[in-house]
Amino acid sequence: KAKQEGRNRYCFFSEELGQRMLQRHQQEQHLRSAIEHNRLEVYFQPKVALGSGNVVGAEALVRIRSEDGNIISPAEFIPLAEETGLIVPLGKVVLIKSCQQAALWKNAGSILPVSVNIAAAQFTDPGLMGLIEQLLMECQLSPDLLELEVTETALIQDPERTAEILKKFRALGIRIAIDDFGTGYSSLSYLKRFKVDVLKIDMSFVKDMLQDKSDYEIVKTIISLGQSMNIELIAEGIETAAHQASLQELGCLYGQGYYYSKPLPPEQFIQYLQVGKH
Ligand code: C2E
Ligand code: MG
Ligand code: MG
Ligand code: MG
What we know:
binds magnesium ion
């Protein structure tokens, strides 16, 4: 009997595992097909100067337009894209579309840098540098109109290599931002080692900074760190006027968040540029 139970149990687990593998395989096929059939869309969220509310740039955020017309958010497919390596072709599409938009804004009279999220596997991909150089040339963009957002976790995976890649990008004049700053391994020594242009204060600290004393202190500390190291600061996840006022008082110059605008499809972003929020 025990043997039979054991076997049933074995079957149960293997079935569940089989189900999961099948589901994962289907998700991977969906993702692959979205990339191949041009169903990736890039939205843009304004980055603003906290003092004036002027738009100073935009972050490119990818979505999938599913076959039934629904928008799928990156939280649902970026992790799988990273695991399967599909992040490299996906990221290429995002870079192309982002540079094309920046060229369009420029031609419409708004010279704005575009920030693109770069996953670890893209960052260390030997093809990235060439792709970017080619895109900047084709779109006639100066390198300081492109900013790469990389997470701390991606940076520390291979520190030697990271330092080298960062040096090359910065030599080209491309800006580098550390995304979600404060949530990874925020060692001060690597800030010294990896020269970057921008720290993005993670929204998890911003969210409760007005209620939670330790979040407030973390935000304050990141801001003074940036100031003393001469690194630009931008706060993510600004949702209220009170967030903005407090960050501004602490000396943070830039921000992005729903208080200003959600990420917008390209046409709406251009409207936002023309009309502004207020
Ligand atoms: P992230 O780079 O940290 O982007 C910020 C996320 O916060 C975006 O979510 C944005 O819509 C959201 N957000 C902005 N302001 C607010 C706010 O005031 N309140 C709240 N609650 N959320 C706000 P989204 O677009 O869903 O992207 C999630 C993450 O997916 C990104 O986090 C990034 O890590 C990843 N991602 C998005 N697009 C790409 C891409 O093209 N390539 C790669 N590698 N990752 C991407
Ligand atoms: Mg980002
Ligand atoms: Mg972030
Ligand atoms: Mg994030």
